[in-house]
Amino acid sequence: MAKLLLGAPVANALGEKLEGEIARLKKTGVTPTLAIVRVGERKDDLSYERGAMKRCDALGIDVRQFVLDGGCSQEELISAIEQVNNDASIHGCLMFRPLPAGLDEAAACAALDPAKDVDCITEGSMYGIFVNKPIGFAPCTAEACIELLDYYGYDLTGARVTVVGRSLVIGKPVSMMLQSRNATVTMCHTRTKDMAAECREAEILVVAAGHIGTIGADAAAPQQVIVDVGINWDQNAGKLCGDVLFDEVEPLVSAITPVPRGVGSITTAVLAKHVVEAARRQTA
Question: What is the DSSP letter of 114?
């Protein structure tokens, strides 16, 4: 039976580390503050927003909501982002995507100040990841993968890591972050020949394909650690599941993250971490 890599202990440990820094900032008159920019009422956005607000409230981070109607204009959206940029008391911004049809998402992302981009939606933040410099911040979910591996004591230096998925949201940034930690990284995607064979060679397998059943028993290997980033709704089972066929793979590997209760549990803690770091940078 594989070890379950639960996200809650990781998130709690991150929160404990942040408490001292938040208290220090408040003594100087600075309250770390997050702006949430949301267009419309998507259920997944609302769910994540509730989780983020709960996490921030527990840590003493202020949250300001900029909620726009689903039929808002591009000008109204840009105006909200400019309010965030121009308010020195706001240190970080989370803008939910995808935006409704008719809005220029690329232009909206580009309008945000990279210094306040706490979830890597700007090109400046992505550049920072690729050159390993503190410009903006990494995607919260990608960094959550690293936090999880660190918490459970997996040494990334020299480790053979395979990343399944090449999106700018998870796959590419987490690959660069792993390389910055001296891992040897292989990236797999829909055009990879014999992906199962590639995955079996990995000591650590990070799966971020966005599709149920991407990884099954044929891709697993003994002593392997699997980080399943996928969040999918299984219509047949009527429950959330990852990209990995958990029941097939769990008996074959050393450790695995469950879905839910895995990586997703850490993302709001990483978001809070980024807001606090943004406040520190902006007020140093």
Answer: G
